Amino acid sequence: MIATGFAVTTLLLSVALGKSARRNKIKDSPYECGMLPIGESQPRFSVKFYLVAMLFVIFDIEVVFMYPWALTFRDFLARDQAAMVFWSMSGFVGILLVAYLYALKKGALSWES
């Protein structure tokens, strides 16, 4: 309740005490680092760019899953569970390899086409 009261009071004080700016065409135009805003606002990107970006994020996240496994693998060696943990991670890496080979075969990483 105190936080809401403070936020409302601050907003009302800034409206009551603040200066209102004079508006004109030059000040209302978007600032483009000294360049005149001509043309489209956003350049168009190929779909291949987004596909490669999504594949990068997917495989990058999978590497993040491997990092904690690599840190705790020594603990599993001490508890004689190393074989199970190794083969489960090998299956995980195998699935990643199949996905990577599929992406290569489909031409998802080819920039020429």
Structure description:
It is built from four helices and no strands. The mean pLDDT is 83. The longest helix has 32 residues, at 47-78. The relative contact order is 0.07. Helix 3 (47-78) runs antiparallel to helix 4. It has 113 residues and is an all-alpha fold. The protein has a domain at 47-106. Helix content is 68%, strand content 0%.
What is the residue-mean pLDDT, rounded to a whole number?
Answer: 83
Instruction: Give me the number of helical elements.
Output: 4
Unreliably modeled segments:
none
Structural class: mainly alpha
Q: Alpha-carbon distance between the termini?
A: 59 Å
SSE string, helices as H and strands as E: HHHH
Beta-strand percentage range = under 5%
> Compute the gyration radius: what is it?
28 Å
Q: Quick one: overall form?
A: flat
Number-wise, the strands total 0
Q: Note the main sheet.
A: none
- The level of helicity is 55-70%
Keywords:
113 residues, flat
Brief write-up:
The protein has 113 residues and is mostly helical. The protein has helices at residues 2-17, 25-28, 47-78, 82-106.
Task: Break the fold down into its secondary structure elements and pairings.
Layout: H1 2-17, H2 25-28, H3 47-78, H4 82-106
